[in-house]
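Slide 14.
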Amino acid sequence: MRADIVAGAVFPDYDLTDHTGERRKLSELQGPDPMILVLSRGGFCPRDQRQAEGLVQLYREMEVGYSRLVTISTDNMLATNDYRSGVGAHWTFLSDAGRKVQKDLDIAEYTDPEHDPMIPYVIVLEPGLVVFKIYNGYWFFGRPTIEELRQDLRAVLRKCRPDWDITRPELKSAWERGEHDCFYPYDKTFAQVFRDGRGF
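Slide 15: predicted structure.
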């Protein structure tokens, strides 16, 4: 991994094609929320498939917990969709068949010249693509457990949500004064959130 990609650094805002063929930037996919970014070898790897299967349940929690999940692999578009469908995933998968991310981050898995994948990593990002934690998953048990990711998300949300502890008297007073800008979602009405499909 590139030496400057460390906790506290801003992760590159890659622009890649998603599983529907649309170009997407990571910052767009993240929005104002924490995000778990999975850098994957691809659907050919049984370890990556097992990891993605485990993330299916966590993603259901992340949807109601205002957090995002994105997978990037070196698969082409067809293989990306096969991978996503095969594990029953419903989050965004990005195709990096040109190895842009692999090369830029210096994470080519040189021990597998046949597939030329990237070394699998899981990166937990605070809002603004700020790196919170990095897991190297070359060996399967180097990857975070679902519980570790839950704990990471809790730590990030506690850090970035001003209304994390809604029992604070000053928050209640702000709400009663009609000062709702420190309550999530900060820039939308609750009606807009439900229209976006991200309600409680």
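Speaker note: Confidence is low (pLDDT under 50) at residues 189-200.
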